[in-house]
Amino acid sequence: MFSQVKFYRNLNKYRKGIQLFSLLFLIMVPVLILVDIRYIVGTLYSISFWDLDIVDPSMVIQTIVLSKEFYIPLLFAAIIPVLLALVFGRVFCSWMCPYNTLLELLELRTIKRFQRKIFKRKKSKNKNPRTLIYWIVFAAIIVFTFLIGLPVFTWISMPGIISSEIFAIVVGFGIGIDTLLFGAIFLSEVVIGKRYWCKYICPVGATLALFRTKYTLKISYDESVCDCAAYAEPCASNCPLNLTPKEAMLYPYCFNCGRCIKVCEQTGNRALSFAFVASKNK
After folding, report:
1. Is the pLDDT of residue 122 over 60?
2. What is the DSSP string of the chain?
3. Model's pTM, two decimal places?
């Protein structure tokens, strides 16, 4: 019988397992090509499994903006990630994206102490940013792409860049210029520790966030059973995006990693859970 308690307590283990598998998969694809097995070809920009093509929906938007045309086959190629986002939200970002995986690997106490020392941070109550900010930034990136007529989305897609560089290194093409961009952004994220890129800029996450309905998987908060003291919520402290699961405007920022639910299951009173129905958070 399915045990919800057991599932939530082991949630992070399941997620880490999928993250590890996703990284190994990105390495496996070019390795298979080296041994002339070409049933799986591509990167996280677009990938083919035999005759099944899967395209990052953000690349579809970029193609439409640059070409000013709709390509039906390209739209069909984005169906699988769109359906995944419609049902489970931006789980690609928290469960499969190699950029998020690498950042989580560096969530060490020594680094956090360094961040507090350098930026002299004081603990304060988390407050979710306004939803409008998220969409203004995304719209600005689309407009900029249209005005300069160049593939901006491709340049700033961290999962696409990482998967492409892994592919290039494994097959012997060497390190490309994209690695420098990735390195600069990654280093700034590690030093500052605010996850600004994932939270505001990444076009992949923003595109997936477009496909969210009131029935999409979300964090549900039951205020009646919450027994955490004010300003001392472990769920907010454990959020990688510095969000407060109990407050409004959690979405579209939240990518359903479930870390807040796991800590609530262990140290709280199970006030947080995943749900497919409308909840207090919007």
Report:
1. no
2. ---HHHHHHTHHHHHHHHHHHHHHHHHHHHHHHHTT--SEEE-SSEEEETTEEEE-HHHHHHHHHHH-S--HHHHHHTHHHHHHHHHH-SHIIIII-HHHHHHHHT--HHHHHHHHHHHT-------PPPHHHHHHHHHHHHHHHHHHTS-HHHHH-HHHHHHHHHHHHHHT----THHHHHHHHHHHHHHH-S-HIIIII-HHHHHHHTS--TTS-EEEE-GGG--PPTT--HHHHT-TT---TTSS--TTT-----HHHHHHHHHS-S-EEEESS--S--
3. 0.86
